[in-house]
Amino acid sequence: MKIAGIVAEYNPFHKGHQHQCDRLREMGYEGIIAAMSGNFVQRADTALTDKYRRAAGAVASGVDLVIELPLPYALASAEDFARGGITVLTATGAIDAVCCGCESGEEKNRKQYQALCYAEEEGRIGAKMKEGLSYPAACKAAVTELGEAWSEEPNDVLAIAYRKALDRIAPQIPLLAIERKGSYHGQNEEGFESAESIRRRLRLGEAIQSALPEGSYEQIKDAPLADIIRLERAILAYYRTTPTEEWKGFYGMREGMAERIEKFCDAKTLSELYDRVKTKRFPHSAVRRAILCGYLRIPADLPPITYLRVLAFNERGQEILRRMKKEATLPICSSLSPKQAEDPLVRAQLRGDEFFAMTLPEPGGRYEEMIRSSRKIFDFGK
Asked: Can you give the pLDDT at residue 133?
C-alpha cells in the first residue's frame, strides 16, 4: 500500500482538503495519514472545535488515519511546525511521500527553497537579521537579492519549511506540492471556500453546509465553538501579576519581546496588547505566538516528540496501524498513561487541553470529561 502523509490543522476539514485527498488517490496513494494540530493552532488561537470532532470529520471525508501534532509544535513558527509534523509522519514508518498545497506550485516553490538554502549557506540571512529584520523578512530580502521571486503566501512558506524538514529528517521521502489557486481568505477559483472564511461565517451563524464534505459537517454542525476570548482576562492577569523572569524563557520570547510585553501588559484587551507589542522586528503573528506560549508555559527548547497519539481512523487506517506496530519508531497510543507523567511533552499537551476546555461555552461539558482522568494524574502547576 502506497501511503501519503499530510500535515494539517483541519480547522475545519473542508472541500479543498477533500480535493487534496482525491488528488492523492488519483496519484496512486491508497492510504493517507494526517498529522493534525490538536486544540490550538499555529496562528496562536484555539481551534474552532475540539480535536476529536475535527479528526473524526477528516476520517469521514478522505483521510484514513489522524495522529495528533503535539501542542508545542502546533503553536510553533513555520519551521518548528513543519519539523514536528514531518517527525510525526516519518516516525510512523509507513509514508512514501508528504503532500502539501502551495500557492506557487511545485517548480516555483522548489526554486525558492534552493535560493533560500544558498542564501543561508552564504550567511546572507544572518546578515539581514543583524540589520534588524525579522527572520521572514530577512529570508525575503536575501532571496530577492539573488534574483529569485519570494512568496509570502502562508502555504508557500510552509511548503519550504516542509522541504527543509524532510531534507534533515528523511531526505529519501519526496514532497508533493500541489498548487493551490485563488484567495486564501475567501472562495478560490475552483469554488473551494477557505477555512478562515468558513470559521468566520460559522461564528456569525450562517449556513456552511455547502462548504464542507458531509462527514466533516456532521461532526461540527452542533459542536460547541471554542473562543480564546474566554481566556482573555486570565492571560492579561497572568502577565500583569507574574514576574517577567518566570515567563521570559518560554517559546517565542526572543530578546526584547518579554520586555515589551511587560511594558504594555496594562492593555485592556489581547488585541490591544498584540498591537502595542508588535514592531518591525516582532510581527503580529510572532507576538501572538509568544504571548500564548508564555501563558501555556511552552519551553523555548521544544521537548522531543516521544509518542504517536492516534485521534481517529477508518478500516484502511486500522490496516495502516497494524503496519505501524511493526515499523513505527515511536510508541503508538490513543490515551496518555501515568507512566508518561514526567514527560515534558505530555505535561504541555495536557495543560493545553485543560485550558482549551475553558475556552468552550460550558467548561464543565463533554470535552472536560474526556480529560478528567488525566487531570487526576498530572500536577499542572509544574
From this structure: 82
